[in-house]
Amino acid sequence: MVINANDVIGTHHILFITFDSLRHDVARAALHAGQTPHLAALLPGGKWEERRTQGSFTLPAHMAFFAGFLPVPSGPDRPHRLFACQTPRGTTIGARTHVFDAPDIVTGLAAAGYRTVCIGGVGFFSQQTPLGSVLPALFQESHWNPDTGPDSPDSTRHQTDLALKALHSRDPAQPLFLFLNISATHTPTHGYLPGATADSWESQCAALAYADTHLGRLFHALPDAGSWLVVLCADHGDAFGEDGHHGHGITHPTVWNVPYAELLLPGRAGDTV
């Protein structure tokens, strides 16, 4: 189904989740192994779409995302974008694209009446340094503490708790833009795989399975608030020794290939905002 963003701005809440460092092949394998049942129930057709990200590490990827440049299909076709910011020229802006007269979509959504909430995440969302404050500063509300960061073994539980608080404290008359950067899938992930001493493809699968258990609570609660536009993706992937590469911030297929999904989730009684 092709979603026309112009039909949902103002009538739907928006949930945007980025799974930090999550490779497409890892997300697909975890799904096929039945490790992510809550994501499986939400994904269109029960599967991820393989796409190419806009940046090889967190900062440039999210700067692009918040400008409306989400991951693109892996093939040569370039469908029109969901969101864009006003520009003199845009070859991927079409009838389905909602164009904001703003420097970024977060500011644009706030101007359209949305309450904007950020829940980090990795260090670029930590607000502990000037650089770590750039992305959170786009939002009206930003949340981060060490318990939600990548070094916390229970980060997704804490992030989900914060998301549910934002959901339950909403003004029923105001649409919500809720953004989460899931840190569990970012290194270190070996703690999620019993007996592992180093991060690997398998340990990232285990980290995603852990994250799914808590995100299920959020997914279950969403329809009570009304109808939603949901966008799920990774910001980039990670190399685990392929062709001698490790980590991200590099030009390698393991980094560029990411899972992606966009969908409309109706309210429990078919309600909009």
Automatic annotation (TrEMBL):
Spans through the membrane? none
Q: Which GO terms describe its molecular function?
A: arylsulfatase activity
**Ranges where the Sulfatase N-terminal domain occurs:** 103-254
Supply the alphabetized keyword list. Hydrolase
Under PANTHER family, the record lists: ARYLSULFATASE FAMILY MEMBER, ENDO-4-O-SULFATASE
The UniProt entry's sequence similarity note says: Belongs to the sulfatase family.
Q: What is this protein's record name?
A: Sulfatase N-terminal domain-containing protein
